[in-house]
Write a structure and sequence with these properties.
The chain is built from five helices and four strands; from the N terminus they run βαβαβαβαα. With 120 residues, the chain is of the alpha/beta class. The N and C termini lie far apart (48 Å).
Length: 120
């Protein structure tokens, strides 16, 4: 009787790799996270997500916007131009159900992680 029942969320068991930046992609993956998905935010080793720097900034120097759009997500930094980091990304892809990205058309293919590589 004293045990708390865990409610099964609609996206429980779904793993999402989120390479998106700014607002639309992170908002979409936040909705998936809110519905129970495990979301792993993949950020560039450089600046990462630009929304980190939108005012107002919090005590950790990340923006309130960044915190609102990325709460509960896991995070990893990868340079997809690096062969080693691309291999790490492809290992993550093998365990993922969704890859969300917001690059210009053709960028993923130029990085060597386009649909042809992801769907093999």
């Amino acid at each position: 009787q004293g045990q708390t029942r865990m409610m099964m969320m609609p996206l429980s068991g779904v793993r999402v790799l989120d390479l998106s930046r700014l607002l639309p992609g992170p908002f979409a993956s936040q909705l998936m996270r809110d519905m129970g998905a495990e979301v792993i935010k993949i950020e560039d080793r450089g600046l990462g997500d630009y929304s980190r720097f939108f005012p107002p900034l919090c005590a950790d120097n990340n923006s309130a916007t960044f915190h609102a759009l990325n709460r509960g997500k896991k995070s990893v930094q990868l340079d997809l131009k690096s062969e080693q980091d691309r291999e790490v990304f492809m290992q993550l892809v093998e365990t993922a159900h969704v890859v969300l990205e917001s690059f210009r058309p053709g960028v993923m293919a130029r990085l060597g992680v386009g649909p042809e590589q992801l769907l093999c």
